[in-house]
């Protein structure tokens, strides 16, 4: 069997960020295997493309630390390499006094996480900043922004290849065996097998399946992924709003929000629907629910303004009744798999955190 030093399973934004980080350090023995026909065809390209500030996540969690670190790295990367982005800022809008009080707690949490510039706004301040947004008050996050995720992945992909990494597509992993020198990996196409010393599982929606192939009990370890679908509806006319507009967060998501892309187009989403299988259809019957949620803080919007757009699937570790679950980024030595690194449950803020996740994993590889 052919041998490589490091193999990364999955060429989404996190897998690409990891290969980029390792390749720029001088490693020449890196292989990335991706089951799809190109990079970033799943969660990495089916999201709001928001650079999050780090407000929401519990202090000292990986989500909090890697989001804040990743945001800073991402803005620096975009500036240096001309990756399109805009630091648009974001308003989390409260609709009543109870929600407004919660915004103070959210601000405090964000500050504990190291988020800069957070500001509580009264109703009058909100109206002055965004006259077409209605609310009791708001939390303003100036460090939140938007990014062209395709251009980011393009950068990671091409710079990694230029540095000597090998990235192959149409290469679905179907088996992993522990061997003395590391791992024997089987690819479905032609039943091809190869050896790798270090194996990094960055398979996104299928990361739990890959962990199972390696012999881990994913239910006992809490690694099983739950699919949570998020749909978007496009706003078909111009609404004069400059900032990202979010509601107070829900238990399993950040809530249906106003998304603005780099071209100025606007859409609403995503909702949160737990599903058993992956489908990217958008159910048009959900339009009324989107409208009813949005009209509370964008009173000018009408039902006829909305049309189905796109959808994505979140790789969640918690179900609808569970509390917060953090990213899993772990070397499985204690479970008998030295050199096998799991990266599981990478939902939001995974895009923002991707450069920091890459640095975190690269340190694990070097130990």
| Highest-level CATH class of the largest domain | Alpha Beta
The third-level CATH topology of the largest domain is FAD/NAD(P)-binding domain
CATH architecture of the largest domain: 3-Layer(bba) Sandwich
Q: Termini, distance in Å?
A: 26 Å
By DSSP (H or I, 4+ residues per run), the number of helices equals 9
Main beta sheet strand tally, sense and closure: 8 strands, mixed
Beta-strand percent range: 25-35%
Output mean pLDDT: 96
Which residue ranges are poorly predicted, with pLDDT under 50 across at least 5 consecutive positions? none
Q: What radius of gyration results from the CA coordinates? A: 21 Å
What would you call the structural class?
alpha+beta
Beta-strand segment tally = 20
Order of helices and strands: EHEEHEEHEHEEHEEEEHHEEEEEHEEEH
Could you say how many structural domains there are in total? 2
| CATH homology-level superfamily of the largest domain | FAD/NAD(P)-binding domain
Tell me roughly what share of residues is in helical segments: 25-40%
Any idea what the shape is?
Answer: elongated
Task: Give your account of this protein's structure.
By secondary structure, the chain is an alpha+beta fold. The protein folds into 2 domains: 163 residues, FAD/NAD(P)-binding domain; 148 residues, D-Amino Acid Oxidase, Chain A, domain 2, CATH 3.30.9. It has 9 helices and 20 strands. Strands 1, 2, 9, 10, 11, 12, 19 and 20 form an 8-stranded mixed β-sheet that branches. Strands 13, 15, 16, 17 and 18 form a 5-stranded antiparallel β-sheet that branches. Strands 6-7-5-14 form a 4-stranded mixed β-sheet.
